[in-house]
Design a protein that fits this description.
The chain has no helices and 52 strands. By secondary structure, the protein is mainly β.
């Protein structure tokens, strides 16, 4: 009777005493005439809150009906009989309906081990999508091994079970936690992809680890044989080893694959950290390193803010970097390249010194960028001050200015007298660099004929070590909208016929560098305003033969148009507000007599220019 489902006084029973929310129990009366009107009326308080949830008027007869508890908690079910018998009670326990946490571990031969990490329930039901169902206790024994009949996608569902006081399972209504699982015939071995020293005591280890695969990360000090367990790894890709002495010791790491079902092991290739030191000598920064070279295919040197040095032999333990600038600070890292991994040392910083001239500055950009003056830009160096020289029309260069920046605009540039530029600097060791190659911007000029055909010419660009792959011309309207673009290769001239689209055209030439990473250079803007080319017929014949029946003025690029036509007595016969308007030779519906008439037109073109046209026209009457 320790877990009886019969009430304390025996007047009613329920089918369940425990379960997850929402919990529905079946209330059944036992005593004859119990809770019936006229015999033994009663009230029912389902949760002991002194509010009656059922009375004789809404209690079903026969006395067998559901009661639902929607929230977790411990509730006292109270039945009060009005015949003086007194209250009868039972305790109902409702648990939170939480999905239990669990892990899945892949095994060989399509196997899986389920480990329940949740402890909020008394037991756990495990159901596999192939129909197998089992239960496990909570705690360290909450695990089960299962093999599927084939490889492929399956599901594993784990449900929390609540036990009655006598050890039987209470209502099995808790929600399943369901996870997908891919059964595989053979485990995929994990391997390390990167080992990187973060600071003097910590190393970050990255690895590939298949989903649901259990493995162990192991460590050895100053060798690659005496490995000790570091930690288990599962469904992650990175771990940090702490408490190390990276300045004096190197550490080797490997992963060990674990078949959770059979506890068999398989080791990966080891990847080792690097003890790295750097020292500045005259004209060279000397690096040396210590590690276990087993499995190393080559070494690389990462040089901050510079190109990495790759392809060093795996037998090397030292390297002299002569590609340095006096008093420049350099930060180096040594990288060991394995077949599937890299190991990165702690970075080391040294300040170089050198009595040799510093290298010349390369790849100067000289570009107008929409301005009337070119802007010069060059890569920065260790120089505190740069000196610029200017050569006009290929004359000998002369001093222009000094600057501590890496960009200046030449506000003295004259398009009619193109100039080129040179840059040099003095490093912190007071040694002058060679002059750069000359940097000459693109200077664009052109002309336009009576048919609005534009011919462009421009000077060649100089300043990039490997030059340009070619030029591109862009054509814009008066508002800066791009109308067209033309790739012209290495040509330095281009002819553009009238496109009848925009009266005002602005041209700009772009130079495309041969080397990736360099900026396109641009010429000055060249602006042309096309002629409206107004014309009109001298005579017309309004005889409805569909040939020359009307008079109108023709032209292009017209924004506003107003025209008046008069007879020889000055009488206004016709007005027009659009250049497409036509006079049919009538006035007030009557055809005008043959003769000479006068027109006057006021025109505003798209460039905003106002002009007038006037002339005489002859109206001919021809049948």
């Amino acid at each position: 009777m320790a877990q009886s489902k019969i009430s304390n006084r025996g007047f009613f029973r329920v089918d369940e005493l425990k379960g997850c929310a929402p919990l529905t129990i079946i209330f059944t009366g036992i005593a004859p005439g119990y809770c019936q009107d006229g015999v033994a009326p009663c009230v029912i308080d389902k949760d002991g809150d002194k509010i009656n949830d059922f009375t004789s008027s809404n209690i079903p007869d026969p006395l067998n009906f559901p009661i639902t508890y929607t929230t977790p908690g411990t509730f006292k079910l109270i039945v009060g009989v009005q015949s003086g018998v007194g209250n009868d009670t039972l305790t109902i326990t409702v648990f939170p309906n939480n999905q239990p946490a669990f892990d899945l571990y892949s095994c060989n031969n399509n196997g899986v081990q389920v480990r329940v990490t949740d402890t909020q329930y008394d037991r756990y039901q495990i159901q596999y999508s192939d129909g197998t169902i089992t239960t496990v206790p909570k705690g360290s024994l909450g695990r089960h091994t299962h093999s599927f009949g084939s490889s492929g996608n399956f599901t594993v569902a784990v449900r929390g079970l609540v036990l009655n006081n006598n050890g039987t399972i209470a209502k099995n209504n808790c929600t399943d936690a369901v996870r997908n699982f891919n059964a595989i015939p053979a485990l995929v071995a994990p391997f390390i992809t990167q080992v990187e020293a973060i600071n003097e005591t910590d190393i970050s280890i990255d690895y590939t680890l298949a989903t649901n695969t259990l493995a162990r990360l192991e460590i050895a000090t100053n060798n690659n044989t005496g490995f000790q367990p570091l930690r288990n790894i599962y469904n992650d890709a990175q771990v940090t080893a702490t408490g190390l002495t990276n300045e004096t010791n190197f550490y080797c790491f490997r992963t060990t694959l674990i078949d959770a079902c059979t506890n068999t092991l398989a080791n990966s290739q080891s990847v080792c950290s690097i003890v790295h030191r750097a020292q500045a000598n005259d004209g060279a920064n000397v690096l040396n390193w210590v590690t276990n070279a087993a499995g190393v295919a080559s070494y690389s040197l990462n040089k901050e803010n510079s190109v990495a040095i790759n392809g060093l032999s795996s037998s090397l333990t030292t390297y002299s970097d002569v590609d340095i600038i006096c008093k420049e600070t350099y930060t180096y890292s040594v990288i060991a390249n394995y077949s599937q991994a890299v190991s990165v040392s702690l970075p080391k910083t040294v300040t170089s010194f050198n009595t040799q001239p510093p290298p010349a500055i390369n790849n100067i950009t000289a570009s107008f960028e929409g301005s009337v003056f070119p802007t010069l830009t060059w890569p920065s160096s260790s120089a505190p001050v740069y000196t610029l020289f200017k050569s006009v029309n290929n004359n000998p260069s002369s001093f222009l200015l000094e600057t501590n920046g890496t960009s200046i605009a030449d506000n003295s540039f004259d398009l009619s007298n193109p100039a080129c530029y040179f840059v040099r600097y003095q490093n912190d060791c007071d040694v002058l660099s060679p002059l750069t190659t000359k940097a000459c911007p693109i200077v664009l000029s052109g002309n336009q004929n009576n048919e609005n055909v534009v011919t462009l010419t421009w000077t060649a660009y100089s300043g990039y070590n490997n030059g340009l792959t070619g030029y591109r011309i862009e054509k814009y309207d008066n508002n800066g909208g791009l109308l067209d673009q033309f790739n012209v290769g290495i040509a330095q001239t281009f002819t553009d016929p009238d496109d009848n689209i925009s009266q005002v055209n602005v041209y700009r030439v772009f130079g495309i560098p041969a080397d990736a990473g360099l900026t396109n250079v641009t010429s000055n803007d060249f602006r042309v305003v096309k002629s409206p080319n107004i014309y009109y017929p001298r005579a017309f014949t309004p005889n409805n033969d569909n040939l020359n029946d009307t008079f109108r003025v023709y032209g292009k690029y017209i924004r506003e148009f107003r025209m008046k036509i008069f007879n020889r007595w000055g009488e206004l016969l016709f007005t027009a507000s659009n250049i497409d308007d036509e006079w049919d030779g009538t006035f007030k519906g009557k055809t005008q007599p043959e003769g000479t008439y006068v027109f006057s037109a006021e025109i505003v073109d798209e460039a905003g220019r106002t002009s007038t046209r006037s002339g005489s026209i002859v109206l001919l009457s021809r049948d």
